[in-house]
Design a protein that fits this description.
Layout (H helix, E strand, L loop, with lengths): L3 H6 L15 H5 L4 H4 L6 H5 L18 E9 L6 E21 L2 E10 L2 E3 L2 E5 L6 H28 L7 H9 L1 E2 L2 E12 L4 E9 L7 E2 L19 H18 L4 E9 L2 E9 L11 H11 L10
Parallel strand pairs: 6-11
Antiparallel strand pairs: 1-2, 1-7, 2-3, 3-4, 3-5, 5-8, 7-8, 9-10, 10-11
Length: 308
């Protein structure tokens, strides 16, 4: 039997950590996922960052469709690289089945359909009041930044580790760790969802990850987060690796920003928060310079911090 530690340690260092599943939110809508198809290195903090991109929302042209879906795209022929959002029409049915709630937002089960294919995403809405398309697109940009930096971090840490430096579970996390897939949708005609306490117009669509969510780190304090019980065999390893990831993002940004506030199901991160000195309220839940200044005082290094 092959040695699982050696196999994980020899993983090729490419940003496409895992091949895309056969049907994803992106593939169903006919998009290329920029995380998998993009160039080898992207400076998501500066070149792409959190700049607002102008989006023209077309009229729906396909009979039976009721939503426009948006996904991050890029033009590698431009220098500097041009980023924006591609768009496709699709059909979505949003149910009142509650999945998860956090940070004044709630997620409801839905069914997204296009060209005879279906995917069951979670539709993420702000509680009590709707937000503009620009707000949801900015969240998608933040999520792409987190996903890309997480992939870079895993590649970097794996390259610096020897097989004996990590346990089997830690290697498994480094091989499988990723942010759940997400996109943005805007309804052609707003729909009322009583459970969501309002009208649904624009939303973030997230890959549905079944299973019990785990809090791996907090978004307002940056010391270790050690719950009293473990719900997943990889929970302790996830906490260790993501603690290192927060430290790594602080260092590679020149102490200007860091990522924390992780929740997830197994090795899939479903929630993350970016604290950044520069971008202020343009990043959802950003505590800005005060959080960045506190981070080195509250963070406790683990065995991987010196390796990353």
């Amino acid at each position: 039997m092959a040695d699982p530690i050696a196999a994980a340690a020899n993983r090729p260092t490419t940003l496409a950590i895992e091949p895309e599943p056969i049907i994803t939110l992106h593939s169903l809508c006919g998009f290329k996922n920029a995380l998998f198809k993009g160039p080898r290195f992207i400076d998501t903090q500066n070149d792409f960052g959190y700049r607002s991109h102008r989006v023209d929302v077309p009229r729906l042209t396909t009979r039976g469709n009721n939503v426009i879906m948006f996904a991050i795209t890029y033009d590698p022929s431009q220098h500097p690289m041009e980023w924006g959002f591609d768009q496709r029409s699709a059909s979505i049915q949003i149910t009142e089945e509650f999945i998860h709630g956090w940070d004044f937002r709630s997620t409801f089960k839905a069914l997204l359909s296009r060209s005879g294919m279906q995917v069951p995403p979670g539709v993420r809405l702000f509680d009590y009041e709707s937000r503009s398309l620009r707000t949801h697109l900015a969240i998608a940009q933040m999520n792409f930044h987190v996903a890309y930096q997480l992939a870079r971090f895993c590649d970097n840490l794996i390259a610096n580790l020897h097989p004996a430096d990590a346990t089997v579970e830690e290697w498994q996390v480094l091989k499988q760790l990723r942010l759940q897939e997400n996109m943005v949708g805007q309804m052609h005609d707003p729909v009322t969802l009583p459970t969501a306490k309002g009208v649904v117009h624009t939303f973030n669509a997230k890959e549905h990850i079944p299973g019990r969510r785990k809090v791996y780190s907090l978004d307002t304090s940056f010391g270790p987060c050690v719950p009293s019980e473990q719900h997943h065999p990889l929970a302790a390893s996830m906490r260790l690796v993501l603690n290192t990831f927060s430290h790594w993002t602080y260092d590679v940004s020149g102490e200007e920003t860091f990522i924390c506030g992780f929740q997830g199901v197994g090795p899939v991160v479903t929630e993350a928060v970016v604290h950044d000195k520069t971008w202020g309220s343009r990043i959802h839940s950003n505590l800005g310079g005060s959080a960045v200044r506190r981070f080195p005082e509250e963070h406790e290094c683990c065995k991987f911090c010196v390796k990353a």
